[in-house]
Amino acid sequence: MTKAAVELSGVTKHFGEVVALKGIDLAIADGEFFSLLGPSGCGKTTTLRLIAGFEFPTSGSIQIHGKEMALEPPDARPINTVFQSYALFPHMNVERNVGFGLQMKKVNSNEIATRVGRALDMVQLSHRANAKPDQLSGGMQQRVALARALVNEPEVLLLDEPLGALDLKLRQQMQIELKELQERVGITFIYVTHDQEEALTMSDRIGVMDKGELLQVGTPKEIYESPTSRFVADFIGDISLLAVSVVSPTEVRLSGGGNVPADTSNAGDGSHWLALRPESLHLVSAAADVPDGMVRIPGKVRHRVYYGDSYFYDVETTAGSLDVRQENRPGLPTFDAGTELMVWWNPAAGSLVTA
């Protein structure tokens, strides 16, 4: 990783007797799009507020480009924040909304005009500079809020669930626009969300949080395909979890009996599960051939759901319930509820996770 734009070392935060953060260690690279992901109350917004300076840590270090900032006020930090509520001034047009912060800092009018014009170009809203907020769509208002933050030329931009107020289609469109904008401006984005799709779509890396702890940090591919705990596996996308016991460095035993290959080299203490994504599982008739080296167990279809381009099956096996997603295309068989069949997967597709 390149040099850290933001680095947290041993950061804790207590609100009275409530422990909101438990010793967070995290380094976010310069120019990275980093997302903090987790359920409500996990500590992700508290972490963002500590970086912004809206809260101070109980203990630990917060550095921004190598400079200690843990106890500095927000206006002393090279950071701006975009919130879910855009808080645009309704009586001001777009241009004045974007330039308001510079005006309060007594920046000269020529520089304000130059920087506002550049910020509006970044978010592709120069043609709406004279519009009032109520004349803009939700997506445009969100871009105005981004321009208002970017006009201050921050080293780090913090985003606290800024797409939460948008409808689904607009939110998906803005995910792409946000990532493209971050790549154009080249500054560090730290994004807070509880939405797995947002994090997977936009992020260079993701930090998954729960109960004040940072459980796993990695690329979207690493987080999705190689979760390190049951919580991360269960929180990110759809997954099936089969209870297993470790029997050797290369095998686990299914709860219903039978050993299957699995990498257990990183198995921790506690209960273990084999985590399997729906798209990594395959269904064939009970009598069909399965490629050599694959894991296979018998099962019975309990439910089948049609999704247009795919079918989603709930299959009961001797090892537990499995969710299977199969493409809907010519040549691939479909199976009705009650059908007995075989489920198979490549051993490399399963991840061993610990509670």
Explain what you see.
This protein has 355 residues and is of the alpha+beta class. 24% of the residues lie in helices and 36% in strands. It has eight helices and 20 strands. Strand 7 (156-160), helix 5 (168-185) and strand 8 (188-193) form a beta-alpha-beta unit. Helix 3 crosses helix 4. It is globular and about 80 Å long. The two termini are 29 Å apart.
CATH class of the largest domain: Alpha Beta
Low-confidence segments: none
CATH superfamily of the largest domain: P-loop containing nucleotide triphosphate hydrolases
Shape: globular
H/E element sequence: EEEHEEEHHHEHEHEEHHEEEEEEEEEE
Straight-line N-to-C gap: 29 Å
Major pleated sheet: 6 strands, mixed
Beta strands, count: 20
Helix amount: 10-25%
Q: Taking all residues together, what is the mean pLDDT?
A: 92
CA radius of gyration: 24 Å
What's the structural domain tally?
A: 2
CATH topology of the largest domain: Rossmann fold
Strands ordered across the widest β-sheet: 6-7-8-3-9-10
Quaternary structure: single chain
**Number of helices, counting only DSSP H or I runs of 4 residues or more:** 8
In terms of structural class, how would the helical and strand content be classed?
Answer: alpha+beta
Proper CATH architecture of the largest domain? 3-Layer(aba) Sandwich
Strand content: 35-45%
